[in-house]
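Q: What structure does this chain adopt?
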Amino acid sequence: MTTATTPQRRPEMVGQTVVVIGGSSGIGFETARRARAEGADVVLSGRNSERLKQAALELDAKSTAPFDANDPAALKRFFETLPARIDHVMVTAGGPHYGPILEMDFEQARRAISEHMLLALEVARNAAGKVRSGGTLLFMSGTGGRRPRAGLGIIPAVVAAMPKLIASLALELAPVRVNLIAPGFVDTPLSASLLGDQLDARRGQLRANLPIRRVVGPADVAALAVHIMTNTALTGATYDVDGGQQLVE
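A:
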């Protein structure tokens, strides 16, 4: 009697290079890990050189570059050092800037816009000649800012504008594909730093109220990111991954 064997699935990203800007921890790190598991080489950047070095060791990264992605000159130099052909770029750098909107000074408002919209524009500008046809630029937004509330600052405006910017870039950069991932709360080191001693309470609230009855983690977002990279029919769109958070809050 013979036993049938299941054919082994071939990794989907063998021979590809994935660049993760903000890849030393959280969602960026998990995406790089998943891309490596699918056979890709990864290039990581981040502001914290020690954390970046550790991430590179864990993932056997092809190369790393410590710099602030919101420095246009440094971003340009980074792209100039990349190989002539790369396949995918994911940007997770930047974070939310909360506070009453009328209390934000000009520089705070400019930074809140710059770390998302202007960063996306600069990455697109520098990546245009590097990413292969059919490759991907992938950016991050969020679902939490879709419902304006006092104290969110300029975040709802940025969240509303990002999908239109991504759609416009998808048309201008075609056949390079451009997409946006919009998470809700994700249990990352950034979330921990923002919430401090309120983190456990927030986790408990989400477990009790989300339709999925658990907290969304970096691996959930990374799984979506790699799918977007490998599914060549996807461009110009925004993909939510929040466990149903926007349905109950």
